[in-house]
Write a structure and sequence with these properties.
By secondary structure, the chain is α/β, with parallel strands linked by helices. Helix content is about 45%, strand content about 15%. Helix 1 links the parallel strand 2 and strand 3. It is globular. The two termini are about 25 Å apart. The relative contact order is 0.16. The site of 5-O-phosphono-beta-D-ribofuranose has 9 residues, from loops. The site of 5-O-phosphono-beta-D-ribofuranose (RP5) has 9 residues, from loops.
Length: about 180
């Protein structure tokens, strides 16, 4: 188990209006410039063996494409990654009742994206993770899927155990 798995190479597919994706998680980036953060989520999903796809679709620049992707995907969980006014996760949530995890991306300002993702109106929640915390979005998606998947639940326990070992090892090697 790696802290940042390099085994998993996330990929970005060119989105299409008619293309239905057979995946469990759909990672949507507001821009290609968000790819590094999206790949953190993708690495975790690949590490857990979760089928996912990563696409670019903007709430502002391609609203019709975004709506169509959300309607056609088989995904059970969405991850929206966006910076600046970061309307993407909230817009995804507006189009689905499936869980949406939002990842604010850092830029010249940071609170803009954090607040855009976290301050959703009552009734349309987005699970906001921290700034640039794509890996936490991946883990949270796995945790949601693990509610009905014992194999994933076991892997999550292993992941926590591995983290415990890292911390103990860091403590042991502190003076080296
Ligand atoms: C947002 O604007 C995107 O999510 C990205 O974080 C930011 C900048 O987009 P680009 O100008 O790099 O395409 O919508």
């Amino acid at each position: 188990m790696h802290r940042q798995s390099e085994r998993a190479q996330a990929f970005i597919r060119e989105p299409s209006l008619s293309y239905a994706m057979a995946v469990d998680v759909l990672v949507i980036l507001g821009s290609k410039s968000d790819a590094e953060i999206g790949k953190k989520a993708g690495s975790i999903l690949a590490e857990f063996g979760v089928e996912y796809e990563m696409v670019v679709a903007s709430a502002h620049r391609t609203p019709d494409l975004l709506r169509d992707l959300i309607r056609n995907t088989t995904a059970r969980v969405f991850i929206g990654v966006a910076g600046l006014s970061a309307a993407l996760p909230g817009t995804i949530a507006a189009h689905t009742t499936k869980p949406v995890i939002g990842v604010p991306v850092s830029g010249k300002l940071n609170l803009d994206a954090v607040l855009s993702v976290s301050q959703m109106p009552p009734g349309v929640p987005v699970a906001a993770v921290g700034l640039d915390r794509g890996e936490n979005a991946g883990i949270l998606a796995v945790e949601i899927l693990a509610l009905k998947d014992e194999r994933l639940a076991e892997k999550l326990k292993d992941h926590r155990d591995a983290m415990k070992k890292w911390v103990l090892e860091d403590s042991r090697t502190l003076g080296e």
